[in-house]
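Long-time lurker. I teach an intro course on protein structure, and each term I like to show students one example going from raw sequence to a predicted 3D structure in token notation. This year I'd like something fresh instead of my usual example. Would anyone be willing to generate the tokens for the chain below so I can use it in lecture? Attribution to the forum is fine with me.
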Amino acid sequence: SGFNFGGFGLTANPAVNFNIGNFGVSTTSTPPFNFGNSLASAGAFGGFGTTTTTAGPAFSFSAPTNTGTSGLFGGTQNKGFGFGTTFGTGTGTGLGSGLGTGLGFGGFGTQQQQTTLGSGLFSQPAQTPAQSNQLINTASALSAPTLLGDERDAILAKWNQLQAFWGTGKGYFNNNIAPVEFTQENPFCRFKAVGYSLMPNNKDEDGLVVLVFNRKETDIRSQQQQLVESLHKILGGNQTLTVNVEGVKTLPDDQTEVIIYVVERSPNGTSRRVPATTLYAHFEQANIKSSLQQLGVSLSMARTELSPAQVKQLLQNPPAGVDPIIWEQAKVDNPDPDKLIPVPMVGFKELLRRLKVQDQMTKQHQTRLDIISEDISELQKNQTTTMAKIAQYKRKLMALSHRTLQVLIKQEIQRKSGYAIQADEEQLRVQLDTIQCELNAPTQFKGRLNELMSQIRMQNHFGAVRAEERYYIDADLLREIKQHLKQQQEGLSHLISIIKDDLEDIKLIEHGLNESIPIRGGVFS
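-- Reply from a regular --
Happy to contribute to a lecture. Here you go:
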């Protein structure tokens, strides 16, 4: 029976024909995305990895000129695209390492593709002969090697399969053909998983560009002004441009993420932010990139949101080496499709990187929670102080109201002195007398108030009595009292025993006396 290779349809039996279609690719269709270094020719995808950049013209924030090449949606030129560090803050060059250098396909990658009209991102590039030969050689190394020409080739096939599973090593299969290099990006590597990353929601007009420095956050913050001046010099020292820092965040491995944007002021007094793609394209020029590297910048990317067409294109095409079934299941299991997008994790290094990023983010969240907790405590203290002041002001307001009322009464008395009582005043006096009678009635409010007052006095009296009955004894004094009472108890027990012995003696004497009386009577008779 043939060796079943993880459900991919591979067998170790040389007599079985190998079907390339079992790998989910075809020699006549589009190859899957490439996560490593892009080797695509004209018209092919640049992949998610590092792409070749060319030095651009002098720095200008005007609209890019069309060089006649066909990019994503027509004539575009060298516009960078990146997911930002929230989409993966690693420094790798592939999508599995956090879309480190941005998506390098079509007009929004960092390469300028020399494509013909109509062969942009969404066209179907032809598969190169080198890729077809690589796929055939991989299939031969895993299923039917002919290196030794005997039964040992079956063992070699299993060994090659094990190397492919692990994602490292070389697969020998023919004496006349070079061995196949197994990497973690090969379709058979088992150390793969699919995670989810947050899609950026910043627009190109916001002009946010991320710079990752190989320096600690404390160093960046202490030298932030010098950093801004250096970036301004890199931009040409133009007085109409102002570099601003949006935020600084710590990354694992002593790296720091700095988000910047550039404001351009026109002579008429208006200002605007330079688009993120334009600023990123300038930073990707060879001479500018070398200057940034001297400052310690290891990675730069434009933080812009994905268009619906780009998200659809990413989701429809499984990345290289990822099973389409697993990719479809990852899309189904997406907890928030509107904000998260599935990304592959290849190898333990990528898993470790995401774990470090998660730990770093957890620490930042905990720090923020601690700050919020301190703010809440301070607000609670301020609230308590404010409530006390409000109560104090209420009492002052009540006292001032009473004083004002007394002043008004005296003023009204002086004003009305010598005048007879008017009709409205007589009615007011009658109403006040009626209220006074109701209050003084035994069964009305006064009686109830007297009853409540008596109950309050009784409760206060009982509370005072209970408070007086409470007492506390020192522990040492209590121990001495216990010892004294124990001695008293022992003395009483000893006294009771002596009394019992004396009673027995008295009983014995009485018994002897009772026996001697009849004998004496007989003698005297």
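Some talking points for your students: The two ends are 140 Å apart (CA to CA). Confidence is low (pLDDT under 50) at residues 1-127.
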